[in-house]
Design brief:
single chain, alpha+beta, Histidine-containing Protein, Chain: A, 2 domains, three-stranded mixed beta sheet, 3 helices, 3 strands, about 15% strand, rod-shaped
Length: about 160
Amino acid sequence: MKTTNKDKQKDLIDSILVVTCLSVVLGLAGCQKEGTAEKAGKKIDSAAENVEQKVEQTTEKVGKELEGAKESVADKAEAAGEFIDDSVITTTVKAAILNDPLLNASHIEVTTDKGVVKLSGTVDSEPSISKAIEVAKSQKHVLSVESSLVVNIMTGK
C-alpha cells in the first residue's frame, strides 16, 4: 500500500495530538496539592516547548522524506521514458534499413542506448556501411550512431 501525502499529514497531525495530550497530562500530573499554580504553569510551558520542538523535527523529517520520494519517482519515470524512447528509435531505424533497397539484403543488428544507435552485422559493400550510418542518423531522436558493421567478403562486390 502506498503512503500518500494526505496519509503522512494525518499521521503527523495524530502524532502532534498525542504529544500535546501527553504533555498536558504530564504537566497536570506535576501539579501537587502543595505546589503553586506558578510551578504548574512552568511545567506546562516546558511541555509546550517540547511539543513545539517535536513538531518541528517531525515536519523536517516528513519534508525530507517527501523530497526523497519525489526524486525517486522522477528518476524512475525518466528511466522508463529512456527505455521507451530507445525502443522506438531502434524500431524506426530497423524499419528504415529494411525499406532501403541498398540495405534490405544486409544483416544489420540495431540497438539503442540513451539515443545512441549501435549498428553491427554484415553488409555486402563499403558503400552499404556508409548508407546504413546515414539512414540511422536521419531518424528522429537519434543522437549519434556507432558502427561495427563489416563487409562480408563472401557476398561482397
